[in-house]
Amino acid sequence: MSIKALRTYTGKMHAKPGKKISLKKFDTNFNQKAISKKEGEILLKKGVEKLSEMQDKLYAHNQFSVLILFQAMDAAGKDSAIKHVMSGLNPQGVKVTSFKTPSSLELDHDYLWRHVLALPARGEIGIHNRSHYENVLVTRVHPEFILNENLPGIDKVDDINESFWADRMKQINRFEKNLHDNGTIILKFFLHVSKKEQKRRFMERINDPTKNWKFSVNDLRERALWDKYMTAYEDLLSNTSHVHAPWFVIPADDKWFARLVIAHIINEHFGKLELSYPKPSQKQLEELERAKAILNAEKD
What we know:
The chain is an alpha/beta fold. It has helices at residues 3-11, 37-61, 78-85, 104-107, 113-117, 138-141, 162-181, 195-207, 217-223, 226-240, 255-272, 282-297; strands at residues 14-15, 65-72, 94-98, 125-129, 184-192, 247-251. It contains twelve helices and six strands. A six-stranded mixed beta sheet has the order 1-6-5-2-4-3, sandwiched between helices. The chain is globular and about 80 Å long.
């Protein structure tokens, strides 16, 4: 598969801004004839190398930051995608944050607070394994969790209506627009795994002693709510995908292919920044020449 063909293929994964999204129209796997796993792994290696070069320029340029979000159902491959795609990054310039159930301290602040604390600085890449979108996903499927936030006017589950969720997504849109306007590039990935493939991976975790720790009975409880989660995902994809903060629906049944397209999409957006190393001023050039002369004059 050529880079041009890969670009065309990944273009189909973009959740188009302003469009009503139906996840049934997005693949969870891909045409196996288009590219072999071996070829894909070679392309991924090149993509990771390119990503490393881009990160170096991002750090030196020191004007932009990059925020990459991963959302998915359990066992969709978020952890492995982060591990493989980001394997070539310099740890000094990247920060991975995994968001779990909010602590009492976090619940004493607005729901975006803990996500703001984890934002990347200029020149850095921030990777959020789950993100502020949990606040319109898990809480939407389990609205009783909202009561833990102790919000004004929300005293019981019946107070949480469709208007509440619409307002919350507007808040998220404003939050991301502000980040974008101040130099943060935002890329959002939903790893779209099929229910059949999730079952296979759950069984693998149960049957493999080295993977037992990855499985929880609660995973089955959430799986039983699959349709509710898909509805919540469709709503947020429809309302929060924008040119400045796009969502990509990644076919995740084949992990190696998911990693390949994620790396490709990130590199494509890096390329749009036209990053370059800072050019030294005349004064700096003169200082470099003086330093060179001093070093050359040293006796070995």
